[in-house]
Known about the structure:
Blueprint: H1 4-8, H2 21-47, H3 52-63, E1 66-67, H4 68-75, H5 79-91, E2 95-100, E3 103-111, H6 113-124, H7 130-134, H8 138-153
Antiparallel strand pairs: 1-3, 2-3
Amino acid sequence: MGTLESMATPPHTASSRRPDALTLEVVELIGSVVARYHEEYEEAAAGHALTGAQARLLSLLSLEPLPMRKLAQRLKCEPSNVTGIVDRLESRGLAERRPDPADRRVKLAAATAEGRRVARSLQESLRFAREPLAGLSEGERVALRDALRRMLEAD
Length: 155
């Protein structure tokens, strides 16, 4: 039989233990990388006279046309905000609305050729990680990519 103290204290699980120093350092480093990414992304967006939200939406649209509802979910904002952002991108010739071939009642937002060019330029201008990543071996980059994917899948 355990002592009163051991009976009152629940056993530690991986999720209830305090993180070790290495985990805390990794979390801090991830935060620094994210902050630097956002800083450079905002600067790159401004270089194209775009807001950060417009640039993020354009980057999503450069991958595939999406309905407004899905854009709002991915950007974690209200659909009415997405409508305004698409309106502004459309007025600049960077995006367009088109009927969804699967359901003509649904409108898809899509990047134009110019919008895809701007989105590519935005991605290419993010230099902060390019050189350090190039200094890693292919195996190290694959391991980093796989670890980041696992972290995202754990949600």
